[in-house]
Amino acid sequence: MNVACHPDSPWTRVDWRALERLRSKFLDETAGASDYWTQMSDLESYDLSFGQRIAWKWNRVLDDLSVLGWRPPEADVLDWGCGSGIAGRVFLDRYPLAENSALWCFDRSDLAAQFARRRAAGRFPGIQIREGVPASTPFTLLLSHVLTECDAAEMEPLLSLARRAEAVVCVEPGTYGASRRLIHFREALAAGFRIVAPCSHRGACPMLQEVNAPHWCHHFAWPPPEAFTDSNWARFAKFMGIDLRSLPVSFLVMDRRPDSRRLPGMTRLIGKARIYKPHALILGCEAEGLIEPRVSKRRHPEFFKKLRKEDAPPWVRWTHEGGDVTDIQAPPQDS
């Protein structure tokens, strides 16, 4: 495909066939079989396109954590399975490294680790950047779109690494399969950590109950305005067959430190509401389990409007009786 761009645009250097090859591996879940980075241009093309979509997901998750008042430990940051390193860069944009701490870039591909390190050095001059995994220093573990690439043999070493971390921030695709993997990852680690998000409780995930088998824990990120005004993104979407408006994400944040959350007793809203003429149904996760109550358009017109526009907050404090929401309060959106 001939993709025309402004001559000064980095999109002129995109290897579209490489992106097509990578997307095919991600969709058929064969990316974990072998190293798929063949040359630096693969990483450059990915970082500019798919990497930015991952950045939008990370920003959505970090916005959520800001509402909760969470900040990472003052420790090293390990971007494991870093790929182009987009997760590490977005994380450090929001949470600069503490003094004397380092960013670690690890990937089975030496090419990817080198690319991630180089991009991070350009973005954050003067910080300590290392390749590999810290041997003994405390660290925050970042996992971005890697669980779907790990088979059973690879998962146990990853769990062992996670058990060494002070905090874990994991962002995955918002698919049913990715969500299920993330839930099992949560259950395997829950005993040693406090669950920060997205969970509203510390018990076993109610998604694992047979009655809740049709559901999965996913949320939605919001692409920036330029995704819909920049012609390069339009060309990317057309070539890749991607709907830029749809950006589902599943995530998990765990921390060993004492609980400092600002929103006790809140309910986490999951997925999108089902909108009907007189009411909406929205799945909520709370201490008692999953519930999908009715939100009356007449009783709660403003919140109903937010649900219809897909602009509802991720957390609410509500009361419900007989399957109907009787009162709703949203948390403040400041950080």
Task: Note down, in words, how this protein is organized.
- The chain is an alpha/beta fold and 335 residues long.
- It has two domains: 10-255, Vaccinia Virus protein VP39 (Rossmann fold, 3-Layer(aba) Sandwich); 267-329, no CATH class.
- The protein has ten helices and 14 strands.
- It has helices at 16-27, 40-48, 50-68, 86-94, 110-123, 152-164, 176-189, 226-229, 231-240, 301-308; strands at residues 76-80, 102-106, 128-131, 139-144, 167-173, 194-197, 219-220, 248-255, 267-275, 279-286, 289-291, 294-296, 315-321, 324-329.
- Strands 1, 2, 3, 4, 5, 6, 7 and 8 form an eight-stranded mixed sheet that branches. Strands 9, 10, 11, 12, 13 and 14 form a six-stranded antiparallel sheet that branches.
- α5 links the parallel β2 (102-106) and β3 (128-131).
- α1 crosses α2.
- The radius of gyration is 20 Å and the shape is globular.
- The mean pLDDT is 91.
Write the layout of secondary structure elements.
Layout: H1 16-27, H2 40-48, H3 50-68, E1 76-80, H4 86-94, E2 102-106, H5 110-123, E3 128-131, E4 139-144, H6 152-164, E5 167-173, H7 176-189, E6 194-197, E7 219-220, H8 226-229, H9 231-240, E8 248-255, E9 267-275, E10 279-286, E11 289-291, E12 294-296, H10 301-308, E13 315-321, E14 324-329
Parallel strand pairs: 1-2, 1-4, 2-3, 4-5
Antiparallel strand pairs: 5-8, 6-8, 7-8, 9-10, 9-13, 10-11, 10-12, 13-14
Helix pairs in contact: 1-2, 3-4
